[in-house]
Design brief:
Blueprint lengths: L7 H13 L2 E2 H12 L3 H13 L3 E4 L2 E4 L3 H17 L3 H9 L6 H27 L1
Antiparallel strand pairs: 1-3, 2-3
Helix pairs in contact: 1-2, 1-3
Length: 131
């Protein structure tokens, strides 16, 4: 998996870009000032880092993302799971849910996600056996 690792400041600016893109770099500076309380120099420094890493492009002063939010979220989630829980989803869920109450709707949605993942695994293993 391609590395989509971001520092907190980079993620926060990229989040603004995802929300508003395409946008002019001057508008991004104004938005970063309003929402993040960043100075112009901070915004351009972080923007340059995102460009260097290949997350965004700033062409003719118009900023657009080169990666989708889901790619970054997946990378960050898998990195957290590996680093903090040894890659164990049950350990993650146990820690995450401890002392927390789920609504019926949340529980049903999580159950559907798990069922879909298991069904996807069964389809994959069925295909491999056919080859």
């Amino acid at each position: 998996m391609k590395e989509f690792r971001l520092y907190e400041s980079e993620y926060r600016l990229l989040d603004l870009i995802w929300r508003e893109e395409p946008l002019k770099s001057t508008e991004l500076v104004k938005l970063a000032f309003k929402e993040l309380e960043w100075k112009k120099s901070t915004c351009y420094t972080v923007l340059k880092k995102l460009e260097t890493k290949g997350f965004v492009q700033n062409e003719k002063a118009v900023v657009t993302s080169l990666v989708v939010r889901e790619q970054v979220q997946r990378y960050e989630s898998e990195a957290l799971l590996t680093r903090s829980f040894g890659g164990s989803l049950p350990a993650f869920f146990n820690t995450f849910l401890k002392g927390r109450k789920l609504t019926r709707q949340e529980a049903e949605e999580i159950y559907r996600l798990i069922e879909d993942a298991v069904a996807g695994e069964e389809k994959e293993s069925g295909r491999k056996g056919d080859e």
